C-alpha cells in the first residue's frame, strides 16, 4: 500500500468515494465526496489484518489526524487492526459544509432538506457503501467515541450484518427518551460540573461575574467582528466535560483582563473565546446537534432552550456557564452559523421520517459490544446509558469515574480494556 504521509512507523493512504447526497433517492444524480484515510503499522502492510472503522464524535467532528505518537488509542489499535479513519459527510475533507454552502440555498426549506441528508442514517449508509465497494464486503469492527456511539446503535439497528464487533466510549444514547428529558438532565449535569470546578478554583467565581458585568456594560467585539455577549461567554462551560477542560478554562479566565483595573479584556482572551465558541471548524455540530435526539414521535424544536432555567440568565449572579446545548440565539450571533439560521429553524420543526434506533432489532442483537460509560459524563447521561446497556443483548459495559468524556484520548489503556472485554 502506498504511503501518502511521511510519519515514522505508519503507512497512511488517503482515498475518496462518491456517495449519494440523499440515500432515500440514490439515483438523483446529486453526490458527495466521502474522504477516508487508511492507516496501518508500517511493518504490517502486507498482512491480512481485520478492519477497524473509527466513528468520530460530534456530530460535525472529523477523524483525528495521526502523528508519530498519537492519538494513543490509534497506536494501540494498530497492533491488531488496519484502521479506517473517515471524515463523516459534511466534515473535514468530506464535502465539508460551509457558510457558503448554506448561503446558496434560495429557501429555508431547501436548506432544511439539505441538512436532513447528514443524519445518522446517511452516515451509516455511507460506511456500508464503503465496506461493500472498497473492502469486498468484509465485516469490520467499529470504535465509536461519543456521538460515534450513537452511530454505532444506528448501525446495529439497520445494518448489523456489516459488523463483527463494536467498541463504544462515552456514547450510549437513550433509546426512547424525550429530548426535553435529555436536556433537563444535561443542564443539571452542567451545574454540578460548574460547582465542582468552582470548588477547585474558588477565585474564578468572582472572575466569571466580573467578565459578565463587563460584557453587559461594553460593546466587546471579537476579532472576527462578532459581539461577545454574556450568553456566548457562558458557552465556554462546554470545556468542563473534558479531562483537562477545567484547567484550560481556569488559565483562560486568569488572563481575561489586561490588568488589575479590569477596564479592558485581553486581546489574546478574545482570540481564544472566538475560536472556542465560533464553530468555524465544525458548523455542522451546531446545525444538527439537537436533531440527534429527535424521533418520529417527538420534535426537538429547541428543547435545550425550553429546559434552560432562570438560573442561567445572563444577569443572574453568580453567573452559570452552559454546556453542550445549542440555542436559537447562536444562529443570530455567531458569524459561522448565521447562514444556517433559516434551515436550522425549519429542520427543528420537521418530524423525523425514521427513528435512529430500532428497539426490536437491538433487543435481538447478536453482535458483541463493549461499552465504556463515564459515570460523571457531562455530555451523555450515565443513567440513560445504563438503561440502554441493559436493553441490548451481548453488550458488556464498564462504568467508571476515572475519566471524563475523553478518556479514550487520555489513556490508550481504555482501548486495551475494551478489546479484552470481548476477547474474553
Structural description of this entry:
- By secondary structure, this protein is of the alpha/beta class.
- The protein contains 18 helices and 8 strands.
- The protein has an 8-stranded mixed beta sheet with strand order 1-2-4-3-5-6-7-8, sandwiched between helices.
- Helix 3 crosses helix 14 and helix 4 packs across helix 5.
- The longest helix has 22 residues.
- It is globular.
- It starts with 9 loop residues before the first strand and ends with a helix.
- The mean pLDDT is 96.
Quick structural overview:
By secondary structure, this protein is of the alpha/beta class. It is built from 18 helices and 8 strands.
Helix-strand blueprint:
Elements: E1 10-20, E2 31-41, E3 51-55, H1 72-77, E4 82-87, H2 99-103, H3 108-115, H4 120-134, E5 140-145, H5 147-158, E6 163-169, H6 179-200, H7 203-217, H8 230-234, H9 245-254, H10 267-277, H11 283-288, H12 303-306, H13 330-333, H14 341-348, H15 359-363, E7 369-374, H16 382-391, E8 395-400, H17 407-410, H18 413-423
Parallel strand pairs: 3-4, 3-5, 5-6, 6-7, 7-8
Antiparallel strand pairs: 1-2, 2-4
Helix pairs in contact: 3-14, 4-5
Structural descriptors:
single chain, 424 residues, alpha/beta, eight-stranded mixed sheet, 18 helices
Q: Tell me the strand percentage band.
A: 5-15%
Poorly predicted spans: none
Mean of residue pLDDT values = 96
Q: What is the gyration radius calculated from CA atoms? A: 22 Å
- Major pleated sheet: 8 strands, mixed
Side by side, the strands of the main sheet go 1-2-4-3-5-6-7-8
| Euclidean distance between termini CA atoms | 32 Å
What sort of overall outline do the alpha carbons produce when their principal axes are compared? globular
What is the string of helix and strand elements?
A: EEEHEHHHEHEHHHHHHHHHHEHEHH
Structure summary, number of beta strands: 8
Number of helices: 18
Structural class based on helices, strands and sheet pairing: alpha/beta
Roughly what percent helix?
25-40%
Amino acid at each position: 500500500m502506498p504511503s501518502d504521509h511521511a510519519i515514522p512507523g505508519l503507512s497512511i493512504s488517503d482515498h475518496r468515494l462518491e456517495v449519494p447526497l440523499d440515500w432515500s433517492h440514490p439515483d438523483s444524480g446529486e453526490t458527495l465526496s466521502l474522504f477516508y484515510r487508511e492507516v496501518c503499522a508500517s511493518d504490517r502492510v502486507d498482512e491480512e489484518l481485520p478492519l477497524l472503522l473509527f466513528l468520530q464524535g460530534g456530530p460535525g467532528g472529523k477523524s483525528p489526524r495521526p502523528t508519530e505518537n498519537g492519538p494513543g488509542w490509534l497506536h494501540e489499535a494498530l497492533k491488531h487492526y488496519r484502521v479506517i479513519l473517515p471524515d463523516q459527510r459534511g466534515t473535514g475533507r468530506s464535502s465539508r459544509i460551509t457558510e457558503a454552502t448554506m448561503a446558496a440555498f434560495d429557501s429555508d426549506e431547501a436548506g432544511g432538506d439539505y441538512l436532513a441528508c447528514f443524519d445518522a442514517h446517511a452516515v451509516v449508509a455511507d460506511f456500508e457503501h464503503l465496506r461493500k465497494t472498497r473492502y469486498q464486503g468484509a465485516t469490520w469492527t467499529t470504535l465509536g467515541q461519543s456521538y460515534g456511539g450513537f452511530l454505532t446503535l444506528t448501525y446495529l439497528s439497520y445494518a448489523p450484518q456489516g459488523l463483527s464487533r463494536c467498541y463504544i466510549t462515552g456514547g450510549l444514547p437513550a433509546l426512547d427518551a424525550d429530548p426535553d428529558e435529555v436536556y433537563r438532565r444535561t443542564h443539571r449535569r452542567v451545574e454540578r460540573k460548574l460547582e465542582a470546578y468552582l470548588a477547585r478554583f474558588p477565585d474564578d467565581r468572582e472572575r466569571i461575574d466580573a467578565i459578565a458585568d463587563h460584557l453587559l456594560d461594553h460593546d466587546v467585539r471579537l476579532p472576527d467582528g462578532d459581539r461577545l455577549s454574556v450568553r456566548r461567554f457562558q458557552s465556554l462551560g462546554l470545556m468542563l466535560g473534558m479531562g483537562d477542560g477545567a484547567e484550560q478554562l481556569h488559565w483562560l479566565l486568569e488572563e481575561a483582563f489586561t490588568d488589575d483595573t479590569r477596564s479592558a479584556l485581553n486581546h489574546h482572551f478574545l482570540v481564544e473565546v472566538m475560536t472556542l465558541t465560533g464553530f468555524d471548524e465544525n458548523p455542522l455540530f451546531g446545525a444538527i446537534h439537537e436533531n440527534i435526539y429527535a424521533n418520529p414521535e417527538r420534535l426537538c424544536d429547541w428543547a435545550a432552550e425550553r429546559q434552560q432555567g432562570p438560573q442561567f440568565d445572563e444577569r443572574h449572579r453568580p453567573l452559570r456557564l452552559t454546556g453542550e446545548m445549542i440555542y436559537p440565539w447562536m444562529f443570530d450571533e455567531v458569524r459561522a452559523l448565521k447562514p444556517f439560521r433559516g434551515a436550522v429553524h425549519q429542520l427543528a420543526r420537521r418530524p423525523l421520517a425514521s427513528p435512529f434506533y430500532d428497539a426490536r432489532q437491538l433487543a435481538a442483537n447478536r453482535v458483541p459490544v463493549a461499552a465504556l460509560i463515564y459515570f460523571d459524563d457531562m455530555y451523555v447521561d450515565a443513567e440513560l446509558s445504563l438503561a440502554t446497556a441493559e436493553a441490548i443483548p451481548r453488550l458488556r459495559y464498564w462504568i467508571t469515574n476515572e475519566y471524563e468524556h475523553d478518556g479514550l484520548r487520555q489513556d490508550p489503556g481504555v482501548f486495551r480494556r475494551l478489546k479484552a472485554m470481548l476477547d474474553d
